[in-house]
Amino acid sequence: MADPNQRIDSIIKKLKESSHKLTPQRLAVVKILAHSQGHPNVEQIYEQIKSDFPTMSLATVYRNVMLLKSLGEILELGFPDGSNRYDGNKPYPHPHVICIKCKKVIDPDLDSLKDMTSEIAAETGFKIVTHRLDFFGFCQDCMNQ
Amino acid sequence: MADPNQRIDSIIKKLKESSHKLTPQRLAVVKILAHSQGHPNVEQIYEQIKSDFPTMSLATVYRNVMLLKSLGEILELGFPDGSNRYDGNKPYPHPHVICIKCKKVIDPDLDSLKDMTSEIAAETGFKIVTHRLDFFGFCQDCMNQ
DNA sequence: GAAATAAATGATAATGATTATCATTTAAAT
DNA sequence: ATTTAAATGATAATCATTATCATTTATTTC
Ligand SMILES: [Mn+2]
Ligand SMILES: [Mn+2]
Ligand SMILES: [Zn+2]
Ligand SMILES: [Zn+2]
């Protein structure tokens, strides 16, 4: 993965460029997302921060996650059941593999994804802006049970 | 597309096999989904039925769509913003192309999709059950404006 | 460093699509 | 025609997210 400190610096730079204030609460959200491996949700970010930041409000986590998303610094993975997970390391579209049982979300390598977007554009006439590719199944841990 | 009448018959058969009653309301929902081209949502199904079935309840549409989904006869496309669209013709996973502006949803052909699932399974060790592939962009109609 | 100000926060209410509830109706079996 | 479990219609409950608003604070300016 990318170096968390590099990620943090680049996000802070983006925040300053867009003249947003750097509050302790905001920085805490940025740090957690930059260090995250498992695509956390808002509630998990909130719980992590609350332990050493007891006054933190859930609304503030929502607001900052929304802001980072609008700045293009994190990728939001919204699911039909209403749950949202966030990738603070790869803000661009990329495939995911999701365990139906334990809700683990991982980033696989997928070579054959290359020219799919242009193939779609050629066939449909759409100007493709983004895409979403999820595979759902059972991880090895959950199968060994 | 598949012949709507074939689709209707096959869904009715599935309903009888699973000993579900065939009410006029249920049949109306089935017919609309079997004839649908544009991946309608619950509200659109409801509106279509209400015109010649004024007592129809929105809850009944939700219940029947849920039932057809659980029987594997329709595909639900849930989106992060909470909206759901339904494909009554191709109940199995397949890619979609969605216009960000007019919300059109179409079924493209995509040859290069073939062995992606097995590639993912080999790399991650997951047992893949299903997948979801969406492309987002602007359709030609919306670009010519 | 103090003052000024626009932005951010915390607490909580509002939202809105979906789901649950329950009394009434009805499809289908006998 | 009778019976009964399932389905319906109307409406309340749910719950993650968003909006509101009074208070606090990061940053700029002097
Ligand atoms: Mn990811
Ligand atoms: Mn489709
Ligand atoms: Zn698992
Ligand atoms: Zn369009």
What does this structure look like?
With 145 residues, chain A is of the alpha+beta class. Chain A has two domains: 4-87, Arc Repressor Mutant, subunit A; 96-144, Dna Ligase, domain 1 (2-Layer Sandwich), CATH 3.30.1490.190. Chain A has helices at 4-17, 24-35, 42-51, 58-70, 116-124, 140-143; strands at residues 75-78, 84-87, 96-99, 105-106, 127-138. In chain A, the strands form two sheets. In chain A, strands 4-3-5 form a three-stranded mixed β-sheet. A two-stranded antiparallel ribbon of chain A has the order 1-2. In chain A, helix 1 (4-17) packs across helix 2 (24-35), helix 2 packs across helix 4 (58-70) and helix 3 (42-51) crosses helix 4. Chain A is globular, with a radius of gyration of 17 Å. The mean pLDDT of chain A is 93. The A-B interface holds A 76, 78-82, 84, 95, 97, 99-100, 106, 108-113, 115-117, 119-121, 123-140, 143 and B 76, 78-82, 84, 95, 97, 99-100, 106, 108-113, 115-117, 119-121, 123-140, 143. Strand 5 of chain A pairs antiparallel with strand 5 of chain B. Residues 39, 87, 90, 94, 96, 107 of chain B line the site of one manganese (II) ion. Chain A binds a DNA duplex (30 and 30 nucleotides) through residues 19-23, 25-26, 42-43, 55-60, 62-64, 66, 82-84.
Read across the widest sheet of chain A, the strand sequence of neighbours is 4-3-5
Q: What is the CATH top level name of the largest domain in chain A?
A: Mainly Alpha
Number of helices of chain A: 6
Q: Overall mean pLDDT score of chain A?
A: 93
Percent of residues of chain A in beta strands?
15-25%
Most extensive chain interface and residues per partner: A-B, 43 and 43 residues
Q: Terminal Cα separation of chain A, in Å?
A: 29 Å
Oligomeric state of shown chains: homodimer
